[in-house]
Amino acid sequence: MYENSEGMAQLTLKGLTAEDEFPDLSQHNNHMAKFLTLDMYTKLRERPTPNGFTIDGVIQTGVDNPGHPFIMTVGCVAGDEETYEVFKDLLDPIIEDRHGGYKPTDKHKTDLNSANLKGGDDLDPNYVLSSRVRTGRSVRGFCLPPHCSRGERRAVETLSIEALASLSGDLKGKYYALKNMTDAEQQQLIDDHFLFDKPVSPLLLASGMARDWPDARGIWHNDNKTFLVWVNEEDHLRVISMQKGGNMKEVFDRFCTGLTKIESLFKDRGHAFMWNEHLGYVLTCPSNLGTGLRAGVHVKLPHMSKNAKFEEVLKRMRLQKRGTGGVDTAAVGGVFDISNADRLGFSEVELVQMVVDGVRLLVDMEKRLEKGQSIDDIMPAQK
Amino acid sequence: MPFGNTHNNFKLNYKVEEEFPDLSKHNNHMAKVLTKDIYAKLRDKQTPSGYTLDDVIQTGVDNPGHPFIMTVGCVAGDEESYEVFKDLLDPIISDRHGGYKPTDKHKTDLNFENLKGGDDLDPNYVLSSRVRTGRSIKGLTLPPHNSRGERRLIEKLSVEALTSLDGEFKGKYYPLKSMTDAEQEQLISDHFLFDKPVSPLLTCAGMARDWPDGRGIWHNDNKTFLVWVNEEDHLRVISMQQGGNMREVFKRFCTGLLKIEEIFKKHNHGFMWNEHLGYILTCPSNLGTGLRGGVHVKLPKLSTHAKFEEILTRLRLQKRGTGGVDTASVGGVFDISNADRLGSSEVEQVQLVVDGVKLMVEMEKKLEKGEAIDSMIPAQK
Predict the structure, then answer these.
(1) Start and end of every Phosphagen kinase N-terminal domain (chain B) (predicted)?
(2) Which CATH architecture has domain B9-97?
(3) Closest Cα partner for A173 from A183, A163, A186?
């Protein structure tokens, strides 16, 4: 694809205009398709980011994937930190629509002090099978997964390995590079539910994130298997704290401690994480801006999930449901992945608090429905 | 995804060793040929339209190998790719096309009358006959690299050219994006419909971008001549019919193709062609004639014979499953076609298919009767 103004000049020589190039979005239902107009496209195609990422690179995944049965997809990605500035005409409205009216002038608050979380250590393990908190981090100075070169990706891996190798105590662990993993290691990581595979979702493939797989991809985890880091999957780093049962507080404590340590290790090596006071942490997908945080549980809600008010309850609690296989899968056996819907405009503590409070309520509702009782009196207000 | 020129320059901040792909698990033509030295030499180059070395090789990096076929592992983004990246592509072309040298000249012969025989392959064995080739429109970039606007222009030019055909070539264009369910069903039943590529060989090279925009199928009313627009090449031209009359298939192929070329030329759009590489197509394996002439033929006994592969090699033929390039055969029915594309003409390649398939059917018949075929094993063509 023509990625810069020289390329654009080439197209003009062939008599091709912005209108000739504008994608056909008539069958489309994603955030990008909602907002991209011909005028916007005409303006934005004129210049790429300093690293050569263009508007066509931003929107390709949304053009190739018109819509999804379970989720309203974003339909665009960032190729580098500058994407969010150079293409703000498109991305600001998408961010506003996706993140509950977040304005271009709003400021985002970061709070990784887990002591600020109230409760969260007593979700009923008969219902809450597991608890997990994840976020992403991007290393400043490198392009993001849709656009990075092999050299950049490997540099991110090298830095990550160095930083993670210096963790100690409860966080001491080991790195497993995808490309030279033994069969035994692979099986163990699958059994632990740690292993990420080459992306098969067309949402990710169409944006180029699977290039050169499995080069420079890997998984690091601590010896206790409660803290892990994915390197070079959808973001430079995905940091995950997880364990069986419902003690979300413990999960979040470990999450904050580990993350803060990792950030300081990277800073020591001269590499900050991409962050600014408007967008918070900068990640590949605009849906993950802000905290990049998804805190969730796998919870048994066979009655509640069939209740007419299920969706309404989730919405009011600012929660989201997914299948137990991840972002674009279906639920299996009445077990749902319930997590915070927001990422931007709320702090980490605030989001985990919503999950803790919301899941507690959903389990109470499930117990009521089991007994044939009504849940009308405990319907929550809109948070 | 193709990189931008800016980003290609940014990559030069990284050393060759840092950017060079890990090809240790790879078995494709690109991995055989690409060295750090070649990579170092070509990494700062790009074609006039901005296609880079990493673009050329991406599909080969992402797809280490294939159980049935030795893949090429690289693609062209435009006509100039074959010149700018010749240090990589010339050795690949030589390896893939039987030692074809950078100084060799390719011969084009689309005069169907030069074919001998071919009208009598036994239809009890030869279920269908087909000839296809590809064509690229000069001045526009190729499917791995082209923009939506270019792709739509290719579609527009193609539809104009095709709708002016008449006689046995009179037909209709069906754009993929506005096809009705009924039309789709019919095209599937006719074995005409091509689907969004799922093969990672194609998707990793970026050929499925913006699907189904600008893609479509044209076919004549008789359903014996069809053109795919904007699949793996700008145009794929196909002549096919049930049974074993390859001669008739080839006649229609040549006649139709020449008519189409004439119309494009009249509108000042030639096809990409040069006297060294013949017709320029997306995949280096299709250079030269771009021609695959083949049959679906029942060879249940011969295909399990110890000498099957040897026979195919000597006849300069190739086997595939009946689903296409990277599929397995079903029920003893094989897709048998010419292995060569470059360095021999269209007539020569179809002749090899006609003569070779005739021989293999005779061998099959012998094996059915429990007789030996040793005396029939051909010399290397």
Answers:
(1) 11-98
(2) Orthogonal Bundle (1.10)
(3) A163
